[in-house]
Specification:
It is a single chain. This protein is an alpha/beta fold and about 300 residues long. It contains ten helices and twelve strands. Helix 6 packs across helix 7. The longest helix is centred in the last third of the chain and has 13 residues. The chain is globular and about 70 Å long. The protein starts with a helix and ends with a strand.
Length: about 300
């Protein structure tokens, strides 16, 4: 059966309320024809690893997509280049992780990521985007410290998927909501899928996904540390969204520029029973956000 006949069948199925059609994603190189002068350069990045422990596990594959974009609208223009690198870890790849990404010991035998090639590839980049930057950034900064010098955004956390009418943050699910499927869990393929997702108008607002990430870049996030809060107030802090940091033994809350002051007012009541207290507020701009490295901390009096 010809592709034309198959497409006609797909169109008929799409018109029926009992069917939903998913097409294989064909990655685009060009997203917009008209060129403008103030384009910025971004990179979408994904890693495949030996496990999920960012302190101990190792990168076995890195995928990157280099693209130009409008820093005002989030409109991508064209894909400049792609890069995929494999690396043999110090220990055999656990079978349970091979089940996820399909990468075997034979595939990475004798392979090593070319640090100089990666550095050259990301030269001139103003924004790194990953779908789980808390994981990918920690892994990459440990293996390739050059990623410490770049500003990062996160499509998983910085786009309000549920508010936009998309019920899951998983990349393959999001892609399916736009009518596509892809070969998931290989680094470069996931990058191409993510770029496509970021260039689709979202069903709730009509905005491009990348525009949400750029909004987050324009203002820092903050982490409020409830230092010295009484132990008995832990349930009140948890109810406000605070999480206990095992390393510092302090409750903390990640918040935004718009919510910071009201969160501090709420902290005084819930964390310190309305009494005066000194807390630490950590600034997290794109250069430290999602990194294990701390941001700048200042003391605030409640």
């Amino acid at each position: 059966m010809s592709n034309m006949n198959l497409e006609n069948i797909a169109i008929q199925l799409e018109a029926h309320p009992d069917y939903k059609v998913l097409r294989r994603l064909v990655p685009r190189k060009q997203f917009f024809d008209i060129s403008i002068s103030n384009l910025k350069r971004g990179v979408i990045i994904d890693t495949e690893t030996t496990g999920i422990d960012t302190a101990k596990d190792e990168i076995i594959e890195i995928g990157m997509i280099l693209f130009d974009y409008d820093p005002v609208t989030g409109q991508a223009y064209h894909v400049i280049d792609t890069c995929g690198e494999l690396e043999q870890p110090s220990k055999p790849i656990p079978p349970e992780t091979t089940l996820v990404h399909g990468i075997t010991d034979d595939m990475v035998q004798g392979k090593r990521i070319d640090d100089d090639k990666v550095a050259k590839f990301i030269s001139g980049v103003t924004l790194v985007v990953a779908h789980n930057s808390s994981f990918d950034r920690a892994m990459l900064e440990r293996r390739l410290p050059i990623f410490k010098t770049l500003s990062w955004g996160c499509s998983f956390k910085e786009i309000p998927w549920r508010n936009e009418g998309i019920g899951s943050q998983k990349l393959d699910y999001i892609l399916s909501q736009f009518g596509f499927f892809h070969e998931a869990h290989r680094a470069e393929a996931d990058c191409l899928a993510l770029l496509e997702v970021l260039q689709r108008p979202l069903p709730g607002s009509g905005r491009l996904g990348l525009s949400w990430i750029l909004d987050a870049q324009r203002q820092p996030a903050y982490r409020v540390w409830a230092t010295g809060s009484p132990f008995d107030n832990k349930d009140q802090l948890k109810a406000l969204g605070y999480r206990f940091d095992g390393a510092t033994k302090v409750w903390s809350l990640l918040t935004t520029h718009d919510r910071l002051e009201q969160d501090l007012v709420a902290l005084k009541q819930a964390g310190y029973n309305g009494k005066a207290a000194r807390v630490q507020v950590e600034t997290l701009d794109g250069f430290v956000r999602y990194s294990v490295r701390p941001g700048e901390k200042v003391q605030r009096v409640l």
